[in-house]
């Protein structure tokens, strides 16, 4: 499968899940966006770019911190952007704009922004170094570039139960490009190869208890995992879901079902 085929599958997946992407079971997304925005230490008058904005978690968080500035969110999913615009309108946020755009071909002038961020997005491309350098080009010298991404054991053991059972059904794992930056060393190397300096990496667990196994299925079905699960035939999908949720239910405690969400936050300076 070539890069364009993968891009098409990803775009179709995120268009399909757009209306459910803000499910409470996925609340690590807005929580991580909030922390990513904090790390920028904004004055309030900057122009900030949010790449692969999804439903606008980070862009809207940034806009709230920019009373004299402006946030711009871009994504290649029209469905995701529609949700982001609806949220901005509902919250009365006017200093944010959203544009349909691929992060590998940003239509902005170099040095147009004071800072740029990418939350859980950079690992979807094979050439992360070139893509991050392209994003950094849109930032003024001395500006900040920041990303967040999953650590190696994120969602463990639930993710392993999911992928092992999918493998038993003959569904292969897609390219695991994210693993290259699933460690502090990987994140640091990515930023340095992209020409960024003063790199710092912070590890933080953004996990929480889900109510039960059905909430875990919301995580699976309403985000990127749908890309794999949807490869099952309808009859197999329901059987798979029941089998998988039975083994997940066995892990539930009185407190609920723990969703471990290890996240790495990386910040660097544009030279």
Overview of the molecule:
- By secondary structure, this protein is of the alpha/beta class.
- Helices cover 40% and strands 22% of the residues.
- The chain has ten helices and nine strands.
- The chain has helices spanning 3-17, 28-39, 57-64, 78-90, 128-137, 158-168, 184-193, 213-221, 226-229, 234-249, and strands spanning 47-51, 70-75, 96-100, 113-119, 139-150, 196-205, 208-210, 257-259, 262-270.
- The strands form two sheets. The chain has a seven-stranded mixed β-sheet, sandwiched between helices. A two-stranded antiparallel sheet has the order 7-8.
- Strand 4 (113-119), helix 5 and strand 5 form a beta-alpha-beta unit.
- Helix 2 crosses helix 3 (57-64), helix 6 runs antiparallel to helix 10 (234-249) and helix 8 (213-221) crosses helix 10.
- The radius of gyration is 18 Å and the shape is globular.
- The two termini are 36 Å apart.
- 39% of the residues are buried.
Report the strand count: 9
- Low-confidence parts: none
- What is the helix content? 25-40%
Overall shape: it is globular
């Amino acid at each position: 499968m070539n890069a364009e085929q993968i891009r098409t599958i990803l775009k179709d997946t995120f268009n399909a899940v757009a209306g459910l992407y803000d499910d409470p079971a996925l609340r690590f997304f807005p929580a991580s966006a909030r922390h990513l925005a904090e790390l920028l230490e904004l004055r309030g008058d900057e122009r900030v770019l949010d790449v692969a904005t999804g439903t606008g978690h980070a862009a809207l968080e940034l806009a709230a911190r920019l009373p004299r500035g402006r946030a711009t969110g871009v994504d290649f999913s029209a469905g995701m952007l529609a949700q982001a615009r609806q949220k901005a309108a509902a919250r009365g946020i006017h200093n944010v704009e959203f544009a349909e755009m691929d992060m590998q071909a940003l239509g902005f002038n170099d040095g147009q922004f004071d800072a740029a961020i990418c939350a859980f997005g950079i690992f979807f491309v094979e050439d992360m170094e070139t893509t991050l350098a392209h994003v950094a080009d849109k930032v003024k010298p001395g500006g900040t570039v920041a990303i967040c991404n999953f650590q190696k054991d994120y969602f463990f053991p639930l993710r392993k139960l999911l992928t092992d059972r999918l493998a038993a059904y003959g569904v292969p794992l897609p390219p695991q490009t994210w693993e290259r930056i699933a460690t502090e060393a990987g994140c640091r190397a990515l930023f340095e190869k992209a020409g960024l300096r003063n790199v710092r990496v912070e590890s933080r667990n953004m996990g929480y208890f889900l109510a039960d196994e059905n909430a875990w299925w919301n995580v699976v079905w309403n985000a990127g995992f749908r890309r794999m699960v949807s490869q099952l035939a309808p009859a197999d999908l329901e059987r798979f879901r029941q089998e998988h949720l039975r083994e997940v239910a066995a892990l539930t405690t009185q407190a609920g079902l723990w969703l471990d969400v290890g996240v790495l936050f990386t910040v660097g300076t544009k030279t």
